[in-house]
């Protein structure tokens, strides 16, 4: 890939109950979308997910309220990874920008463990390259190592990076 070794997007996301119209790259036949995604692994063009036990009514109601309140502000986000226990974005490369993910705006939120490791780019953004912004919200743990870029942003290259509600 020239840009975005794992995800190159205008409108892509890993499905959760918050994003029913999203799509996930897959090498196998399409399967039904789980209601809540427990873990995801993005590695060399593929994303896989595992389904947890059903959420309690309180969590489901809370998620629905959150979606209603933020749907207008998130309408221009083209990479959205939300409400997942564990995410590993590892060992992706690109000849240009964004070793793992290349897009305009990204939001990664409500993730217990996020790992960005071993990603590389021959230009900018070894792990993530977003032309406008990336937001990390409610991330429990972030592990990042062995990412590289030839010019700028070994892990992240973006005009704006926002960190909020860190655990």
Automatic annotation (TrEMBL):
<protein>
    <submittedName>
        <fullName>PmPC</fullName>
    </submittedName>
</protein>
<feature type="region of interest" description="Disordered">
    <location>
        <begin position="1"/>
        <end position="35"/>
    </location>
</feature>
<dbReference type="InterPro" id="IPR003368">
    <property type="entry name" value="POMP_repeat"/>
</dbReference>
<feature type="compositionally biased region" description="Low complexity">
    <location>
        <begin position="67"/>
        <end position="76"/>
    </location>
</feature>
<keyword id="KW-0472">Membrane</keyword>
<dbReference type="GO" id="GO:0009279">
    <property type="term" value="C:cell outer membrane"/>
</dbReference>
<feature type="region of interest" description="Disordered">
    <location>
        <begin position="50"/>
        <end position="77"/>
    </location>
</feature>
<feature type="compositionally biased region" description="Low complexity">
    <location>
        <begin position="15"/>
        <end position="35"/>
    </location>
</feature>
<dbReference type="Pfam" id="PF02415">
    <property type="entry name" value="Chlam_PMP"/>
</dbReference>
<keyword id="KW-0732">Signal</keyword>
<dbReference type="GO" id="GO:0005576">
    <property type="term" value="C:extracellular region"/>
</dbReference>
<keyword id="KW-0964">Secreted</keyword>
<keyword id="KW-0998">Cell outer membrane</keyword>
């Amino acid at each position: 890939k020239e840009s975005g070794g794992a995800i190159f997007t205008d409108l892509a996301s890993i499905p959760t109950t918050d994003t029913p119209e999203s799509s996930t790259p897959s090498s196998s036949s399409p399967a039904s979308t789980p209601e809540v995604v427990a873990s995801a692994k993005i590695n060399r063009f593929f994303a896989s997910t595992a389904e947890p036990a059903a959420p309690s009514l309180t969590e489901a109601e809370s998620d629905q309220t959150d979606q209603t309140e933020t749907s207008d502000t998130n309408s221009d986000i083209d990479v959205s990874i939300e409400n997942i226990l564990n995410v590993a974005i590892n060992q992706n490369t690109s000849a240009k920008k964004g070793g793992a993910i290349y897009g305009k705006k990204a939001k990664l939120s409500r993730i217990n463990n996020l790992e960005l490791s071993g990603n590389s780019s021959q230009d900018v953004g070894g792990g993530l390259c977003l032309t406008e912004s990336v937001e990390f919200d409610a991330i429990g743990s972030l592990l990042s190592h062995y990412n590289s870029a030839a010019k700028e942003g070994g892990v992240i290259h973006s005009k704006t990076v926002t960190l909020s509600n860190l655990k």
